[in-house]
Amino acid sequence: MTKIFNKSGGYRKLFSFNFATIVHLGAIGCCKRFIPWQEDTLGKTVGQIIGAARSGRINIAEGSERAGTSTETEIKLTDVARASLAELQNDLETWLAERELVPWSGKNPQLEKVSAVKRHG
Fold it and tell me: What's the rounded mean pLDDT across residues 87-114?
């Protein structure tokens, strides 16, 4: 029997999807804890941060689901996910810079703990 379509779905088993889910939930928690509504009365900062995190996660899932019918669409959605997560990183770096804080250095013990998740996950 000739296989017409590639296998699709299965995104819940992907490391990238699971890590993006952790990032999304972390972004929500970070916003709730560190960005009080009084500082973000229009909700633009919180909306942007959570929206970029959500977009990264959801586009991984959508790309995986489309793999069976369109490799091109799968690649495009995966690229959108990467861009959304880069947007999130830049938003968070800007938020830190506005408060005269700096992102973790490569030698920070907290960063090493987060990085260990990838190595051992």
Answer: 84
Structure tokens at 80: 């959108």
Question: How far from each other are the two terminal CA atoms of the chain, in whole angstroms?
Answer: 37
d(CA 86, CA 92) in angstroms, rounded, equals: 10
Q: What is the token pair recorded at 104?
A: 């973790």
Q: What angle do CA 85, 71, 12 make, to 5 degrees?
A: 55
Which H or E element spans position 116?
A: helix 109-120
For every residue of 82-110, DSSP letters joined together read: HHHHHHHHHHHHHHHHHTT--PPPTT-HH
Tell me which long-range contacts 57-60 makes (C-beta under 8 A, separation of at least 24): 57/17, 57/20, 57/21, 57/23, 57/24, 57/81, 59/84, 60/11, 60/14, 60/16, 60/17, 60/20
> At residue 4, does pLDDT exceed 70?
no
Residues of the chain above pLDDT 70, percent: 92
Q: Look up the pTM and report it.
A: 0.80
